[in-house]
Design a protein that fits this description.
Elements (H helix, E strand, L loop, with lengths): L19 H13 L2 E5 L6 H9 L6 E5 L9 H10 L9 H7 L4 H10 L7 E5 L8 H13 L5 E6 L16 E4 L1 H4 L3 H10 L7 H8 L3 H9 L11 H9 L6 H9 L6 E2 H6 L5 H8 L6 E3 L5 E4 L1 H14 L2 H17 L3 H11 L2 H17 L3 H10 L9 H13 L3 H11 L12 H14 L3 H8 L6 H14 L14 H13 L15 H16 L3 H11 L6 H14 L3 H15 L5 H19 L2 H13 L6 H17 L3 H17 L6 H14 L3 H18 L2 H10 L1 H10 L6 H10 L13 E4 L5 E4 L2 E3 L4 H13 L3 E2 H8 L5 H18 L7 E3 L2 E3 L6 E3 H12 L4 H15 L11 H27 L3 H14 L4 H14 L2 H18 L5 H10 L2
Parallel strand pairs: 1-4, 1-5, 2-3, 3-4, 9-15
Antiparallel strand pairs: 6-8, 7-8, 9-10, 10-11, 12-14, 13-14
Pfam family, one: WHD_MalT
InterPro entries: AfsR-DnrI-RedD_regulator, BTAD, P-loop_NTPase, Sig_transdc_resp-reg_C-effctor, TPR-like_helical_dom_sf, WH-like_DNA-bd_sf, WHD_MalT
Keywords: Two-component regulatory system
Length: 997
């Protein structure tokens, strides 16, 4: 007789993640209940969960996998006896002998249970659903469960409920239960599962939402768009069909298929779809284990999204088209009755009933747009050819709002061209001003500036009129006062002012629009990103962009925000890819302005990253041919980039002319976004043609504008192009504490800008005692050299040659030993890191395949300080103090002491000390003297020979004390310098003399 035993090992590919949470839960149930039932739908991870929980337990495990043939009289009992026999040698054939002696099968099962006394056995029966219809089999399992002795467990795994007869009510506590919800993957387990099948790119939360954590669903979601390990994209359909649908009766299966249109199935809704026997069928389905969620009272069931998708596909495949259409028609009618207008419209669109869909869409559209569901609204408008239909004011304003939100002015233009202006709401309508403003915006974008002016003149005095005047001023070159954000909620007005405010350089507060309306930040998000970038908050900008990267709208995000960010980070290929994607989106907008603005971005990219003046000039020519000269702000940008192109070719007289016109136009029109950039270029041009006083004035204009707008990042970007401007101004400054000296120091020591776009999976805490964390779990490296190697690679941020590693980290005198040590160190890393986070090798070079997923905190601190150099004021002080707080944990890799570690520790300490001095200066400038004094004292404790720190300490003493305080600090300074063997500097003596006057 062959006994079907199943080893406590999951099927290949199932053991995707060791779920400690679930293992602990199962072990808890085993410790507190003699019988444990694990019931869930096919693919719920039942077998895997139990196998993992029982692995490595100090108890014997007998595993019997059932296949349905056990239903013959007494056969299940015989199989159970054979399964336990290898583990319980003292009680052979207890059950079979009882059967031969005529004892009833239930009593024989009880004898088998009692024979397990003292064995500590865990008996697992898998696939129990295959015998639940057999009364005798249930009697055997019930008796076994009832008579199990202490410290012996029965675990029953099933896709259906198990109707055990335990006995009295007091015995119910003998059974512990694990269900579908317990087995479901959480977000962390889902992420781990997807990574192990090579799908780290999948939206984890989206998968969880789409599968409700159902284990098989998670895996198939990862496989559905790509073949992985031989699985076909339609594997989910095949699996569910074989393991779920085919296990149902024909009437149960038909019920689920014919109600598949319902996201949640209730008896009433099922009856509305023609399922008259709904109550009885739903009661029967409750005993099944399906990929569904039941309400607590059992009156409603919600299929998992993937299961519902399969049901809908099966309905189409198995039913005739007329039946399918009738069911969808009934569903649409039900949705209308329930007031679910949006779903009703989508359902009618699927049925091809455009007229009925339009009637309901006209009712629902304003609410859809008010909830900022612009993508759905746009889909309806396109599917129903809405602009060809005579608009009501409500539908018309919805079309204009969608145009504005998605940056698709063509929608509004088509509406105006087909139906004129007569449909626009009148002065009595609450949408009057908004409609006129949005129509003005559409015309302005499409280049119809005269019509835009005419329409804007119909607006009464107020916020909307001020927004329209500021919008039109970007074209006509005037400079109306910028009103700021309105005190009362107006998503359209504030959304437009955020765009205009950015282009006019009103960066202060752009990230914090006033008022309670969340639509402002939704409509203005791309311009918030643009403002963050302009003020040097690149990491915040990048993180906001990453959240929206996959969205297809609005075009500004991809065509301009992304391009500027990638240019600033020196990522030329990414900048080019973003520009190409943006240009494709621009082509669909109908915006004349965006078309030529794309060419301006292209010119900037060529100049900033490649100094390719020919390609830039071609792009500028295309921009002007497209109408850039007709808008004042774009005409000035043409002059700006052409001026820089001329400087690169040393055509300095022509550059002066272009840049003078640019600066003059920006100042007259009060458009200050790139004024610091233009003034810096003009300072260089003036110097080259011998106009030194004009050069100084232009440089001071650049500095004052950057300070006023908080756009030091833009100024530094310009000075990187023309560094001689900063050097000359610093040389002419009377003190080394001047802003120009700070700028030249930043330019001379500037490291590449690196920002984190997402939370890393691997984090090495390098300050103090090193701690390695992977996916939120602490990992231990058995070799300190592996820690050092990991830190080196994380700090490099790029490919590193084997020879460089050997020279820096290993004994160079014995190359063979060094190479062997390197191999061992890499091996130890591979032992604890997931495959996709292990350093990769390409020939003689090592690198991280996904550098965005790994980080060391030392480099994070250094990168944060570099980024802070591009900021100013409170923002800069906050960035520096946050970075310093991370470094306060202790010295770099405190327990290690190799030559490389000591050198790296010294470099980091020096940079952190400089950061403290910079923070102290900022705090001093902001009159935060106590904070400044603490920072400068901390810096002098680490390095008592820093001249800048002493100068600042003396200035602080004067600000909060008097001559005596100044002299006391000066005395400490001179004592320290004497220890160092140098005389007090002339600059410090001059400062003391000046403060004592």
């Amino acid at each position: 007789m062959m006994i079907r035993r199943k080893l406590a090992t999951p099927e290949p590919g199932d053991n995707i993640v060791r779920r400690d949470r679930l293992s602990q839960r199962i072990r808890f149930l085993i410790d507190h209940h003699p019988v444990v039932t694990v019931c869930a739908s096919a693919g719920g991870g039942k077998t895997t969960a139990v196998a993992l929980a029982l692995r490595n337990l100090d108890r014997p495990v007998a595993w019997l996998s059932l296949d349905g043939t056990e239903q013959a009289p007494g056969r299940l009992l015989v199989y159970l006896e054979a399964a336990v026999e290898p583990h319980v040698h003292d009680a052979p054939r207890a059950a079979t002998d009882a059967l031969h002696n005529g004892i009833q099968v239930g009593e024989a099962a009880g004898l088998l249970a009692e024979s397990l006394q003292g064995s500590r056995l865990i008996l697992v029966c898998d696939n129990v659903e295959r015998i639940t219809d057999d009364e005798e089999s249930i009697v055997v399992l019930s008796a076994l469960a009832r008579y199990l002795p202490a410290a012996v467990n029965l675990v029953l795994i099933s896709r259906a409920g198990i109707p055990l007869d335990i006995g009295s009510m007091s015995d119910i506590s003998r059974v512990g239960e694990l269900g579908e919800e317990d087995l479901a993957f959480d977000a962390g387990e889902t992420a781990a599962a997807l990574r192990l099948i090579g799908r780290s790119d999948v939206d984890v939360q989206g998968v969880v939402d789409n599968t409700s954590g159902w284990v098989a669903g998670v895996l198939f979601e990862g496989w559905r768009t790509v073949e992985v390990a031989g699985r076909k994209p339609n594997a989910l359909r095949e699996y569910l069909s074989a393991n779920t649908l085919r296990t149902l009766s024909a009437t149960e299966r038909a019920f689920l298929l014919r109600t598949s249109a319902l996201a949640e199935i209730s008896v009433a809704d099922a009856v509305a779809l023609g399922q008259t026997d709904a109550a009885r069928l739903m009661a029967r389905l409750q005993s099944k284990r399906l990929p569904v969620t039941w309400s607590k009272d059992g009156t409603r069931l919600t299929p998992h999204p993937q299961f519902r998708e399969l049901l809908a596909e099966e309905l189409i495949r198995t039913e005739d088209p007329e039946t399918v259409r009738r069911l969808h028609q009934l569903h649409a009618e039900l949705l209308v009755q329930q007031g679910e207008w949006e779903e009703a419209v989508d359902s009618l669109l699927r049925l091809g009933d455009a007229e009925a869909a339009w009637r309901h869409a006209a009712v629902a559209l304003p609410d859809v747009v008010a909830r900022m569901n612009f993508s759905s609204a746009a889909r309806w408008l396109d599917s129903l050819d809405a602009t060809s239909r005579t608009p009501t004011p409500g539908v018309g304003i919805a079309v204009l709002r969608v145009s504005f939100a998605l940056e698709q002015c063509q929608r509004g233009i088509e509406l105006l061209e087909r139906h004129g202006y007569g449909w626009l709401p009148g002065p009595d309508s609450p949408h009057f001003e908004e409609a006129l403003l949005l129509a003005t915006w559409c015309l302005w974008h499409s280049g119809r500036l005269e019509e835009a002016h005419t329409l804007a003149e119909r607006l009464p005095t107020g916020c909307a009129r001020e927004a329209a005047d500021n919008l039109l001023a970007l074209a006509d070159g005037t400079s109306p006062p910028f009103p700021g954000y309105s005190p009362t909620p107006s998503a359209t007005v504030d959304g437009m002012l955020m765009r205009i405010g950015y282009l006019r350089g009103r960066l202060n507060g752009l990230d914090r629009p006033t008022g309670p309306d969340p639509r402002r930040t939704v409509l203005g998000a791309p311009w918030v990103i643009a403002g963050l970038r302009a003020t040097g908050r690149l990491e915040e900008a990048m993180q906001m962009y990453e959240v929206r990267r996959e969205a297809w709208q609005p075009p500004w995000l991809h065509a301009f925000d992304a391009v500027d960010l990638m240019i600033d980070l020196g990522r030329g290929n990414d900048a080019r890819a973003a520009l190409e994607r943006g240009c494709r989106l621009i082509a669909e907008t109908g915006s004349r302005l965006y078309r030529f603005f794309g060419h301006l971005s292209e010119a900037k990219l060529y100049l900033r990253l490649h100094q390719d003046t020919e390609a830039a000039d071609r792009a500028l020519a295309e921009a002007e041919a497209g109408g850039a000269a007709e808008y004042a702000f774009s005409r000035e940008l043409c002059q700006l980039w052409r001026g820089y192109s001329l400087l690169l070719r040393n055509h300095n007289v022509e550059a002066c002319a272009e840049l003078e016109a640019c600066v003059d136009g920006m100042r007259r029109g009060d458009r200050r976004l790139e004024l610091a950039t233009a003034a810096a270029y003009l300072a260089e041009a003036y110097w080259r043609v011998g106009r030194e006083d004009s050069s100084d004035a232009a440089a001071e204009l650049a500095l004052s504008e950057a300070t006023a707008q908080g756009s030091q990042h833009l100024l530094l970007s310009a000075l990187t192009d023309v560094p001689a401007v900063a050097v000359r101004e610093a040389d002419a400054s009377p003190t080394r504490m001047s802003r120009w000296h700070e700028l030249t120091a930043t330019l001379s020591s500037q490291a590449p800008l690196r920002v984190a776009a997402r939370a890393p999976r691997l984090v090495l805490e390098e300050f103090g005692e090193p701690i390695l964390t992977v996916d939120g779990q602490q990992s231990t490296l058995r070799l300190s050299k592996s820690m050092e190697l990991l830190s080196y690679l994380l700090g490099a941020g790029q490919e590193v040659s084997r020879q460089e590693l050997l020279s820096s980290l290993f004994d160079n005198r014995n190359e063979a030993a060094g190479r062997n040590y390197l191999r061992v160190s890499l091996h130890r890393l591979r032992e604890v890191l997931p495959e996709d986070l292990v350093p990769q090798q390409d020939g003689d070079r090592l690198y991280f395949g996904r550098p965005d997923l790994v980080c060391g905190t030392a480099q994070v601190v250094l990168d944060s300080l570099v980024q802070a150099d591009h900021q100013d004021g409170e923002i800069r002080l906050r960035s520096i103090t946050e970075a310093l707080a991370r470094a306060d944990r202790g010295p770099y890799l405190a327990p290690l002491s190799s030559d490389w570690v000591e050198q790296r520790r010294s470099e980091i300490s020096e940079r952190v000390t400089s950061g403290r001095i910079e923070a102290a200066k900022l705090a001093f400038q902001l009159s935060r003297y106590r904070e400044a004094r603490q920072l400068v004292n901390d810096a002098l404790k680490v390095n008592p020979y820093r001249e800048q720190a002493w100068q600042l300490a003396i200035s602080l003493a004067h600000a909060s004390g008097g001559d005596d305080s100044v002299l006391a600090v000066y005395q400490r300074y001179t004592a320290r310098m004497r220890e160092f063997g140098v005389a007090p500097s002339a600059e410090v003596r001059r400062l003391v003399a000046q403060l004592r006057r």
